[in-house]
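Review session, final week

We close the course with one last complete record, chosen because it touches almost every idea we covered. It is Glycosyl transferases group 1, a protein from Ulvibacter litoralis with 426 residues. Go through it on your own first, then we will talk.
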Amino acid sequence: MKRALIITYYWPPAGGPGVQRWLQFVRYFNDFGIEPVVFVPENPHYPLQDASFEALVPETTEILKFPVKEPYRLAGFLSKKKTKQISSGIISNKEQSVLEKTMLYVRGNFFIPDARVGWVKPSVAFLKNYISEHPVETIITSGPPHSLHLIGMELQKAFQLKWIADFRDPWTTIHYHKSLRLTKASEKKHKDLEKKVLNTADAIVVTSPTTKKEFSLLTSKPIHVITNGYVASEEMHPVLDTQFSMAHIGSLLSERNPKVLWKVLSEIASETPSFQNNLEIVLAGTISDEVFESISKFGLKDNCKHLGYVSHDEALKLQHNSQVLLLIEIDSPETRAILPGKIFEYLAAFRPILAVGPKGSDIEGILTETKSGVFYNPSEEKELKKQILQWYEAYLDGTLSVASEGVEAYSRRELTRKMAALIKQV
């Protein structure tokens, strides 16, 4: 067995996609000769929680915890709603209040690379003591928050250990980075830290081909693409929705509002008599006010069902029972690298996937490779409308389905096999 110290911020009872990547690796590591030791904050600020994930942590896994000082807790006294939104990544397109502008400025310029940077020094001291008494062979840091990579850098230097930096999302090219109201000096600090991490780690892991291309311009270190994935389940017994349900699982941020989709659905409803009665838009997760406003504007309010945040188990049922699964990404060059965790669970549901996002998105590559759905840019309105009408006709005939291929390569177990091989190789 090779002992690997995994440093991650998100861990059960955290909810949402951020926690699932390393939870699932840890779950299967022992099968592939890796003994994981997990280091997480003792008192974290999780905007979303899902207690069902706690049952997935293997009983034999050693979990180390150390307190973290959370700036978001202090900011919450000023504005709990805004604090929760910003810490969740929801930054409104509308005119921002003085308070919101101030919070973003402070977040971007006083906490570099992020609001958890205060956890770095005490964590390094704690882990130095631990490693001295309980040696490990490899350190793995997972970001965001990217400040955790600074912990890995210090431990690598102190013990000459192998260090793998795992990027679930990009750093300075992530879509919300420009919204942090950074000064030129702060922007430079972010980029300098990013480059230092990329050139100091022994290996880099990313979740998308585009991120690999971007990082390869900054470092000559080996970069490996290991995507997120899905958990194979034999317990699912799908019962397809009787209505023409189009379900989106997960947060819909303001900038991710698919106005072209609502417009097309509205047009079809006015042109096809039965469509308005059969259509059901299912939204599960945190939804911004702008999205609801758009849905109402296009006359679809009565067709929309908002479930709020649902547990992971409930999300899986929704995915398997829906007629069509919606995958929406911000139409921006900065989001081409994003492969949301839900795309892989969508694949495992074997339902048609309708994705809308930027040209050149890695999402399109996955859907094309697996023949699991279609991808459109918002400019392709006519093609989008034609596709929905085709699927609606198939729904009426009872033949709406998808013939996916090669989905098994994205199972969590297969991806863990790949990650374990990398850990042994580095």
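Two points worth writing down before the exam:
The first strand starts at residue 2 and ends at 7.
The first helix runs from residue 20 to 29.
Good luck, everyone.
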